[in-house]
Amino acid sequence: MKWRIQHRTRYIYGAPARDSFNDVRLKPAANEHQALEFFSIVTTPTAPFREYHDYSGNCVHHFEIAAPHHSLLIESTAVVVTNPPEPLAWGATLGPLADIEETVKMTNCFDFLGSSRFVEVEPDIWRLAIDATAGIADVWHAVLALMNFTHGHLAYRPASTHVHTPMREVLAKRCGVCQDFAHVMLGLCRAVKIPAQYVSGYLATEQARATHAWIEVMLPKVGWLALDPTHNCQADDTYIKIATGRDYSDVPPVMGHYKGSLQRRMEVEVNIESIND
Fold this sequence. Notes:
The longest helix has 15 residues, at about 140-155. This protein folds into two domains: about 1-85 and about 255-275, Immunoglobulin-like (Sandwich); about 95-250, C8orf32 fold (Roll), CATH 3.10.620.30. The chain has about 280 residues and is an alpha+beta fold. About 20% of the residues lie in helices and about 40% in strands.
């Protein structure tokens, strides 16, 4: 599938802001399953960009605006072709969960096994994961059980959390948004030694109004496999990947600081349309 994505983020300040420094992660990834045909990014007020790649290999655009400004608009446009791998059969077997440590030793995924800013791997989280996978020996079936648990335990409720809500609070409230579903499943997978990373991107649906979040797990014989606990499914050609990290704190679409009033309003608009050649 080919998609055109337009993403606009506008900040409106209560008083003029100045000395604004920002890192933007909005450029979709280019890999064997996703081709980036076009990308542009501009700001108002205008500013030059410096492009670099972070620790996880994500593309970051840095810009600075020193002069006072009442608002800031960041606009990106991308054209992406998605060609995901065939979904893994739900009944497939990949080997004993007990042998997952051998996969860990052969792959560079140690950063995705422990706690991170918004994800906790503590004894009570381990207990939840063990209960959810009770009687399951195969690692793939265990992953599915953890996704089913996350999807069933949490209710999707817009505005019930914010971008800084940790997974423990989400588990207590039993509700959240896609970011929270991802954080909870990350913690459960990591608790039983299954490497899992956070994915930021877009879900190309008519309801898309912002970025979406899902996860990838490292599986023997397969590699990184994308799963969406919010919708309890494997990612398909409607998923457009931007960046990966340990949790949301590694991949926010826009992150920065400025001098000025604490009063500000943020507006986000995302438009996704399919393109027929």
